[in-house]
Amino acid sequence: xxxxxxxxxxxxxxxxxxxxxxxxxxxxxxxxxxxxxxxxxxxxxxxxxxxxxxxxxxxxxxxxxxxxxxxxxxxxxxxxxxxxxxxxxxxxxxxxxxxxxxxxxxxxxxxxxxxxxxxxxxxxxxxxxxxxxxxxxxxxxxxxxxxxxxxxxxxxxxxxxxxxxxxxxxxxxxxxxxxxxxxxxxxxxxxxxxxxxxxxxxxxxxxxxxxxxxxxxxxxxxxxxxxxxxxxxxxxxxxxxxxxxxxxxxxxxxxxxxxxxxxxxxxxxxxxxxxxxxxxxxxxxxxxxxxxxxxxxxxxxxxxxxxxxxxxxxxxxxxxxxxxxxxxxxxxxxxxxxxxxxxxxxxxxxxxxxxxxxxxxxxxxxxxxxxxxxxxxxxxxxxxxxxxxxxxxxxxxxxxxxxxxxxxxxxxxxxxxxxxxxxxxxxxxxxxxxxxxxxxxxxxxxxxxxxxxxxxxxxxxxxxxxxxxxxxxxxxxxxxxxxxxxxxxxxxxxxxxxxxxxxxxxxxxxxxxxxxxxxxxxxxxxxxxxxxxxxxxxxxxxxxxxxxxxxxxxxxxxxxxxxxxxxxxxxxxxxxxxxxxxxxxxxxxxxxxx
Length: 594
Known about the structure:
28% of the residues lie in helices and 20% in strands. The strands form seven sheets. Strands 18-17-19-15-20 form a five-stranded mixed β-sheet. It has a four-stranded mixed β-sheet with strand order 1-12-11-10, with no helix packed on it.
C-alpha cells in the first residue's frame, strides 16, 4: 500500500534510460563502472557471510515519528520505524521483489485461488516471550484491519474486495485460513501486512482505544513486537533508538541469531543539509543523497571511508495536488474550499494548463544536478511490468498554458505587473505548501512558484512540518489549497488503491467520497475493482495502462521529477548488497561490523 513520502524493475528500465545523459545505465556501484543491470545481477547472486554480533549503525531522518502504530499509519514518518518492529506472514525479497516465507513457513491454496491456508513457523515468539500463533493473525485482520473504530486504516482499503471482507479464521494455533470473496490477484504480495499480538491489544480494542495505544508517548517496554528490533527510547526532535530483539526468529546459515547489530540509532536532523553534514563528518553511517550532493560526495569518496552508489531511477512519485474537496462544513453547510477556488481546482483544463507551466527539465538541471528524469504519470519505469509510457505528456510550454486558460474564459494579464483573473474577475491566487527539512522538495516548490508567477498566478508559498501537512489533509476543515508531496512506489498497482479509489483515505484531492464525484474517478474505481480480481497478467496490464492514461489526462496529481537513486554508506559494514530495487538497507538484519 502506498504511503506519503517524507524525504520519497526489471528489464524495461535499462532500455528506457540508456543514453539519457546523467541518468544513463552506466551509473557505477562504488565507482566500479558497472551498469545498473550488472549491479542487479550481482545482487541476485549475493550470499551473506556469517557475521558476529555487536555494534550499531547510525542513520538519520528529518521528521519525528507520528506514532508507532503500523495499522493506523498513513505516512512514511511512521512506517520508516514500524517496519523494523513488526513483520507479516510473508516478506518481499529486497533484491528480486518476489514474496517469500516469513512468519508463515509455507502455504496452500485451492485451484480457484479463493481459499488459502498458511502454516505458522514453529518457535516464533513475541518480544515478551509469548508464542506467536494463528490467533494473532486472525485478531489482526478481524479486530484491527476490519474494525471501523480503528481509523485511519489504509490496510482496510487493500483488503476490502468488492466491498466485502476476507474471511480470516485460525484453524488452530499453527494454521490460519483466508477465504476470499472474489479472486484477488495481488493476495500474496499483500501479506507483508504487519501482524500484531492479540494478548497485548485485545483489551484496547474492547475499550476502543487501540488507535492511540501505540503513540509516541507509549513506553517502549509496552510495545510487544515480532520484528528484528525493539524500540529502546525516543527523544522528540533528537533521536529514535532501537535495540536488537533477542527473541527474533530468524537465523543465519549457521544457525546464529539475527540481527547481528545490537542497536540502530536514528538521528533526527533539521533538514537534508544537516543530514549530509552529519554523514560526511562520520556522525551517521548512511545517507540517501540527492543529485545536488553527488559531485561533493564523489570528491570526498576518494579520501574518505565511504562509498557512493548510483543505483538507477527511483520508484515513487513527486507531485502537486489541488484541493477539490466538495465536502460541506457541517456547521455552515458550505464547502470547506471556497467556491471560486473549487471552480479552478476542479477544472480539468486549469490543471492541464498548470502542468504545461512546470519546467521539469529545469528542476532536473538545477535541483538534481542533472541526475533525474521528468515524471509522466503514477508509475515509473523503475516499477517494471505495469509501467505505461504511452500517456499524454505536458512539455514545458507557458504559451500553450495561457491558450488553454484563455479558451476557458480566464483573462490573461496584459503585462508582468498584472495577475491572471478568472471569468468573474477574481485574481487567481492560492497557497502552495510543502514540508520542511526536504531541501530538494523546497527548491522544486520554489521553481513551481516562479513558473506560476510568470503567467500571472499569485502563489503564497509556505513550508510546514510534515505531520502538520498531513493533519491538514486528513482532517476538517481541510485547510489547504495546493500541496507538493510524494508517494512511495511499488510494482503492484493495487497497493495504490487507497490513493486512487474515490473511497480511499489517501484520495488526497477529495478523500472518502460516498460516490465518485466525476465520471473519470468512477472509471478509475472500476479499473481498480476489476484489476484486483483479474488473474490474467496481460489483461491486468491493459486495465492499469488505462488508469495511467486517465491519471495523466485528468491530472489530479501534476507530476514533477523522478530522482536518481544515490545512496552512500561508510565501509565498516559487511553484507551490504546494493541493488536497483531496494538500495542498500533492505537486509539490515545481516549487517555486521568488519
